Amino acid sequence: MNTTSKNLVIQDITGGITIRFLSNHSFNLGDQLQINVSDQEISEFDGLLQINNVDNANAAKIGTGNMVPQAKTLSEIIANFENLESSLVEVSNVTISKSGSATFSGSCNLSDGTGSMLLFTRTQALFANENFPTGSIKLLAMVTQGGANKDMQLTMRNSTDVSGGGGGGTPIFISLRTVRSLFLGTTTSVPANRKIHASVISDVSNGSTTTKNIHIQDSSGGMVVRFTADHNFV
C-alpha cells in the first residue's frame, strides 16, 4: 500500500522503472513479470520516469523471485540518482527524524553521515501511523522521486524494510493489520524488535478457544495468538 494501486516498480539486473497500468493490478512483491511495452508512452510524473498507461492484459506473471538490494550510502544514491531510480537499495547506519511527529507518514528526514535524503510514506500505507525507530538502523527502500519539488527520496515497501534502532532496545509497536500484511501465503516471521498492543476478545474460561490460544483485536483488525503453553488471560 505504499504505492498507488495502479503502479508497480519493477527491476532487472540492469535497473528499474515504474509501470503505470490503466487500472488496479493484483501483482505482489516478488512476482516476476513479462510485460508487452511495444509503442508504450515513456514519461515523467513529478520527476519519476514511468512507462505510462499500460493495459493490464499486457502483463503476465511468469515466476517469483527477489532482487538483491544494492548497498549504498545516501551520498552515492544522490550522486547516481538517475541510474538508481526505481531500484532497491540498502542503506546502513542511517537515522530517521521528523519535526513534530515520530510516525512514518509523509516525509521524514534520513541521514547517514555522508548525506541526507527524504523518506516518503503514503498516508494509505499500512505502517504509516507507526512510530519509526530511533538510533542507527538499516533501511531497504526503493529510490523514487515525487512531490511538487520533484524531490529525490526513498520509499519503503513495508515495515519489514527497517531493522535495528529502537532507542536502546525499545520495541517498535506495530498494528495487527501490519502483522497480517506480512503473511503472503507461506510461513514467515515478524521482524525483530516489534510489539503489538491489543485486547483479548475470546473467553477461554468458557471453552470458546483452546487453552493455548487467544483472539486479540486492535483498531486495525484482529488475530489469533498461539502460545507455547496454556495461558490465563481473560
Provide structural commentary.
The protein is mostly beta strands. It has helices spanning 74-79, 81-84, 176-182, and strands spanning 7-12, 15-21, 31-35, 41-45, 48-54, 59-64, 70-71, 88-97, 106-111, 116-121, 137-146, 151-155, 162-164, 172-173, 194-195, 199-200, 213-218, 221-226. Strands 8-9-10-12-11 form a 5-stranded mixed beta barrel. A 4-stranded mixed beta sheet has the order 1-2-5-4, with no helix packed on it. Strands 16-17-18 form a 3-stranded antiparallel beta sheet. A hairpin with a 2-residue loop joins strand 1 (7-12) and strand 2. The radius of gyration is 20 Å and the shape is globular. The relative contact order is 0.13.
Q: Write down the secondary-structure element order.
A: EEEEEEEHHEEEEEEEHEEEE
Q: Roughly what fraction of the amino acids lie in strands?
A: 35-45%
Which stretches are low in confidence, meaning pLDDT under 50 for 5 or more residues running? none
Question: How many E strands?
Answer: 18
Share of helix among residues?
under 10%
What is the radius of gyration computed over CA atoms, rounded to a whole number of angstroms?
A: 20 Å
Instruction: Summarize the main sheet.
Output: 5 strands, mixed, barrel
What gap, in angstroms, lies between the N and C termini? 34 Å
Number of helices, counting only DSSP H or I runs of 4 residues or more:
3
Task: Please list the strands of the largest sheet in the order they lie side by side.
Answer: 8-9-10-12-11
Structural class: mainly beta
> How confident is the prediction overall: mean pLDDT?
91
Shape by Cα distribution: globular
